[in-house]
Amino acid sequence: MKIKQELIQAGHYLLAHQLAWGTSGNMSARVDDHHMVITASGTNMAHLQADDFIECQIDTGENKGTKKASKETPFHLGIYRKRKDIKAILHSSPFYTTLFACSDEPILSELFIETMYYLENIAYVDYYHPGSQDLAQAIAEQATEANIIMMRNHGVVVFDDSIAEAQMRLETLEMACRMILKAKEAGVNLVKIPETTVKSFLEDSFYKPRKKL
Fold first, then answer.
1. Which domains does the chain possess?
2. Residues 49-97: pLDDT tens digits?
3. Cβ(56)–Cβ(26) under 8 Å?
4. Backbone angle region of 120, left / alpha / beta, with phi > 0 → left and psi within -120 to 50 → alpha
C-alpha cells in the first residue's frame, strides 16, 4: 500500500530531523472515507515496516492486524470523524515544541512566511493520560478549531490534507519554538509582522490556498 510507504518515509524523516524520538510518537493516514491506517503500539519510527500499521474502521474503531494498534488510536479516530478533510495525523514530542507544551510561553505565528501559514491556528488541551478517553474527547472537541493541538505536558498532534503538509506543519512549529527560545536566551527582540500584513498574506498573497477550518 503506497500510503504505508509514505508514512514509513515520514517516520524516518521525523527521526532524522529530531521531530520525534524513540517510540514516543505515532502516525496515521486516511485510506478512504471509512478506514485509516495507524502505527502499531510500541513501534519505533526509525524502523517502521509495512506490517507495523493497523487498519481501523473510522466509524466503529474496529481494527485488523497481527499487532496492537497505538494506544492513541482513540484521538486519531476522533479527528477523522470531526474533520472529513483530514488525510494524515502526526503525534510526536519534539524537544522545543514539548518544552512549550510544558510552559505557558506563547507560540508566535507572526514571524515569517511559514509560521503565518502553518501556525495560523493553534489549540490547546490539558494533560490527560495517553490513550485515555478524556484525552481523545478533549482533542476531538478542538479538532474543528485548529490543525495543531498542543497537548499540555505531553507533546503535539498536527493534522492536514496530506502527509507532506502535516510534516511541514510539524517542522514549522518546532522551528518557531526553537527560534522563540533562542531569541529569549540571546536577548533578541522578535518583531512580529503587523496583523494587517498577516491578513493580507493569508488572503491575497497566493502563497498557498488558505486552509479553511
1. 2-204 (3.40.225.10)
2. 888 999 999 999 998 777 899 999 999 999 999 999 999 999 999 999 9
3. no
4. alpha
